[in-house]
Design brief:
Blueprint: H1 2-24, H2 50-56, E1 65-67, H3 70-74, E2 83-87, E3 90-97, E4 100-107, E5 110-116, E6 119-121, E7 127-134, E8 137-140, E9 143-146, E10 151-154, E11 167-169, H4 171-177, E12 178-189, E13 192-204, H5 208-212, H6 216-224, H7 242-253, H8 294-299, H9 302-305, H10 325-335, H11 352-356, E14 359-361, E15 367-368, E16 375-376, E17 379-381
Bound molecules: heme C (7 copies).
């Protein structure tokens, strides 16, 4: 009896001690991160990783979603580039009202519908699409900015005859295009479910902890041990095996048509991605689409099969990728110092990429320009590195 009492006191005391220790070691995110206290938030990385944190701001991962700004949109909208016609009498036009932009559906001059561009998805490297909030749901707007053409188009997959305002943006988009959003499932019909998204929980852009995992303990340790030079309480990606390293990128670069079992927001470096999908994960089809399927395409290359390459062999995700052709070519040359070309092809521009990773048209993303019903090709680099007929096709 006495024994049990003593044990109880010890447990109680430890609980009190743990409680005080937790209060003393202040959580760097002040418990404000919607993902919980294990996440420190991107601002807390800046003090110690200044260079990476500042170069990262310029990447498309960082810019891949956000609230729209008036000035940002202004770059894409002008009097000759602000509408799409569906019929001669029906159009959607981008309108500025009280310093916000709206997409307004007009027929014979009458306004049938007008909704604001609240948020943007896509960095606009290639395209940017928009959504508006209504009753804790986000709906995709009819017009998407297609940056490679500097033109407004009907949003991908939308019917060319009539503007559409009702496609719900689910949390799944944000699993690849943001760092977090809290969702609640609700019933919309006898057999239909949808999701409400808590706007205050939305962390736009892909932040450090999206790839590196929750880092509060790491931050606390290094704040308290400023002389420690070896990283603690953070996964050292370089030491993971090849498949686990690939999984970090493949989480978002294996396409969107796989059956997902668990939210990718829970994925941390070191986790096995296959556990997040239903069993057929990995059979990305015989001809994976260039949109979003970099992993499957790369896997189909001899370069990948006969070497130990990972995505990091060519990409440094901490830096923006403009004008880095030289670096990519250097990465080819690292393994192919003197490629054996029968013809004198490669010597001129030395652009290995145009011939061996040519731009291809996506089959899964289809844009059109409304009235003329013209579909606009969405071009991406294939990651199946190979010899293509005609060299440059
Ligand atoms: C108080 C200082 C401090 C803060 C704040 C901090 N780190 Fe670190 N971090 C370090 C030190 C020291 C190292 C080890 C030296 C190095 O690799 O720069 C390190 C290393 C790392 C590594 C490399 C691990 C490896 O060796 O591959 C990652 C990844 C990392 N930190 C991520 C983060 C993230 C994400 C944040 C913000 C959530 C963060 N750190 C905030 C001090 C800090
Ligand atoms: C898209 C995924 C991704 C994001 C986002 C990301 N990292 Fe990394 N980071 C990596 C990978 C992959 C590596 C390992 C690279 C290698 O193998 O050399 C790495 C390595 C590191 C390292 C150790 C090696 C080095 O370059 O010093 C640090 C420190 C680090 N990251 C900090 C950060 C910080 C801070 C942020 C946010 C500003 C961030 N990372 C955002 C993927 C990411
Ligand atoms: C959380 C999801 C996510 C993860 C994890 C992720 N990516 Fe991405 N990545 C994206 C999205 C979304 C885009 C499109 C960004 C845009 O332009 O809006 C993208 C774009 C890119 C681009 C094009 C960059 C550019 O400048 O246009 C490269 C290269 C890339 N990712 C490589 C990687 C690599 C390598 C890793 C692993 C270290 C990785 N990604 C991890 C979601 C992710
Ligand atoms: C499985 C991850 C994934 C999901 C889910 C996903 N995307 Fe993407 N998205 C990507 C990747 C990766 C890219 C860039 C590279 C590519 O197209 O292959 C991209 C590119 C884009 C772009 C063009 C960005 C640019 O400028 O390059 C837009 C716009 C976009 N996605 C919107 C959406 C919307 C809207 C949804 C939800 C309906 C969605 N995406 C769902 C991974 C995803
Ligand atoms: C990590 C090493 C590595 C890197 C980096 C690499 N490759 Fe390869 N590549 C290989 C290996 C190994 C093979 C198979 C043996 C061979 O054909 O030389 C190969 C094969 C090829 C082939 C023949 C493919 C076929 O189907 O017959 C081409 C073409 C090629 N690589 C081009 C490139 C280009 C272009 C780049 C840069 C974008 C590149 N490789 C980067 C290792 C690499
Ligand atoms: C103008 C298009 C073109 C350019 C540029 C080009 N290649 Fe090739 N490459 C080809 C063609 C076509 C073949 C197959 C026919 C042949 O062997 O000539 C080939 C074959 C190859 C092979 C397989 C033969 C072997 O050595 O095993 C490799 C590897 C390769 N190229 C790498 C490269 C690298 C690296 C670069 C950049 C330095 C490059 N290529 C630039 C068109 C090109
Ligand atoms: C052998 C080098 C190499 C490897 C390995 C590699 N990439 Fe790339 N990647 C490239 C090149 C080259 C481009 C084209 C860059 C450009 O056109 O500016 C590219 C472009 C991209 C883009 C932008 C798509 C586009 O069409 O603009 C994404 C996304 C991407 N890579 C993701 C990945 C992911 C994820 C992995 C790992 C599964 C990976 N890459 C591995 C060389 C590579």
């Amino acid at each position: 009896m006495l024994h049990r009492k003593a044990l109880f006191v010890v447990i109680l005391l430890s609980a009190v001690v743990i409680f005080f220790v937790q209060c003393l070691t202040s959580n760097p995110s002040n418990g404000n991160d919607p993902r919980g206290r294990f996440f420190a938030g991107a601002n807390s990385c800046i003090t110690c990783h200044k260079d990476i944190a500042s170069s990262y701001l310029h990447t498309n991962h960082y810019k891949t979603s956000g609230e729209t700004t008036h000035d940002g949109l202004k770059n894409f909208i002008n009097a000759s580039n602000n509408k799409v016609y569906y019929e001669d009498s029906a159009l959607v036009i981008l309108e500025e009202k009280t310093s916000r932009f709206y997409q307004t559906y007009k027929m014979y001059g009458n306004v049938l519908r007008s909704e604001p561009l609240d948020i943007a998805i896509g960095s606009a490297e290639k395209a940017q699409t928009y959504a508006y909030w209504k009753n804790e749901q986000l709906f995709q707007l009819p017009l998407t900015f297609f940056a490679s053409r500097q033109a407004w188009t009907n949003s991908p997959g939308y019917p060319p005859r009539m503007p559409y305002f009702n496609r719900v943006i689910l949390s799944r988009c944000f699993e690849c295009h943001a760092s977090y959003v809290k969702k609640t499932d609700f019933q919309t019909g006898p057999l239909e479910m949808s999701e409400k998204l808590a706007s205050s929980s939305l962390i736009f852009g892909i932040d450090c902890e999206r790839c590196h995992g929750p880092a509060t303990s790491h931050v606390e340790f290094h704040q308290q041990n400023p002389n420690a030079t070896e990283a603690k309480f953070i996964t050292v990606i370089k030491t993971l095996n090849r498949q686990r390293q690939l999984d970090i990128c493949a989480a978002c670069h294996s396409g969107n048509d796989l059956d997902i079992q668990r939210s990718l927001f829970a994925f941390k470096p070191g986790d096995t991605l296959a556990n997040f999908y239903f069993p057929h994960f990995g059979n990305g089809g015989s001809e994976p689409d260039v949109h979003g399927k970099q992993m499957q395409l790369l896997q189909a290359s001899k370069c990948f099969q006969q070497s130990k390459m990972t995505c990091s062999s060519c990409h440094n995700t901490h830096q923006a990728e403009e004008d880095k052709l030289e670096i990519f070519i250097a990465s080819c040359n690292a393994c192919h110092p003197s490629p054996n070309h029968k013809m004198q092809v490669a010597t001129s521009g030395k652009n290995c990429i145009d011939c061996h990773m040519p731009l291809q048209v996506s089959r899964s993303l289809d844009f059109n320009n409304g009235k003329e019903r013209r579909s606009i090709p969405y071009l991406l680099r294939t990651h199946r590195i190979a010899v293509y007929p005609g060299g440059k096709e």
